[in-house]
Design goal:
CATH topology of one domain: Four Helix Bundle (Hemerythrin (Met), subunit A)
Helix content: 55-70%
Mean pLDDT: 90
Number of strands: 0
Order of helices and strands: HHHHHHH
Largest sheet: none
Radius of gyration: 19 Å
Strand content: under 5%
Shape: globular
Number of helices: 7
Distance between the termini: 35 Å
Length: 239
């Protein structure tokens, strides 16, 4: 099977398949309590990676955004985006996703699911990128070839990023509208991992349970509020 064909499959089913893979890994290798300083360091390192991935996604959607949803489950693009983070990496959103997924897999504290999960997501996103590159090359021709030659596929170039942020601030509205779902899921997952790995599982004798529930309630309120404002077109960003 060609890599681009596999990528088309992953692109179409990623919203269902990717969470399912994570759920299966957690079910087969459930995380345990942190029992040493090394395990605590690995947990925090994993959460730091996930935070970095979320920050990269926020930078990307706050400047300019590429149409990743596709049309009817297929890769689609009405324009070639080459500004913002897309001038520094051709796939900053996918790099962010890989950092989030890899960070949470590392934070589980289990070697086998971490290696298996990271390998799966690396393959999946590499295949998706191959499918997208094939589509974009056929649609935008020389413009996309020039873009490919001048911008790295993965790791963003960070030189001058601070100066660009000062001269062209991020759009808070764009971040809220485009990223509230992923941001909420990232925070909820991080809180759940911290609670599961650091706190007693007996909810009746867990003094941190109220704090966890309050934080999760705040995130749920944030998600529902932004979703409602978006649905009513009170918050929106022109395409």
């Amino acid at each position: 099977m060609r890599l681009s064909t596999l990528g088309a499959f992953f692109f179409r089913w990623r919203n269902a398949l990717f969470p399912l893979v994570l759920i299966v890994l957690v079910e087969l290798w459930p995380p345990g309590h942190v029992a040493s300083r090394i395990e605590l360091a690995i947990l925090l390192a994993g959460l730091a990676l996930a935070t970095l991935g979320q920050a990269l996604r926020i930078l990307t959607v706050g400047w300019d955004y590429i149409e990743r949803g596709g049309v009817h489950g297929r890769v689609a693009a009405s324009r070639l985006v080459t500004h913002g983070m897309f001038a520094r990496s051709r796939n900053p959103m996918y790099v962010g996703n890989l950092l989030i997924a890899g960070g949470f897999l590392l934070a589980l504290g289990r070697l086998v699911p971490a290696l298996a999960g990271i390998a799966f997501f690396l393959l999946a996103y590499r295949a998706i990128v191959a499918s997208e590159e094939q589509f974009l090359a056929s649609k935008f021709g020389a413009d996309y070839a020039s873009y490919m030659a001048s911008v790295p596929r993965w790791l963003p170039r960070l030189r001058g990023l601070r100066a660009e942020l000062r001269s062209r601030p991020l759009s808070l509205t764009a971040i809220l509208v485009r990223e509230f779902g992923t941001f909420s899921a990232t925070v909820v997952t991080a809180v759940a991992l911290l609670a599961w790995r650091l706190e007693p599982h007996d909810l009746l004798h867990n003094p941190w349970g109220v704090l966890d529930a309050t934080l999760l309630g705040v995130i749920a309120g944030f998600y529902l509020t932004v979703r409602t404002l978006k649905k009513r077109r009170i918050l929106w960003v022109p395409r």
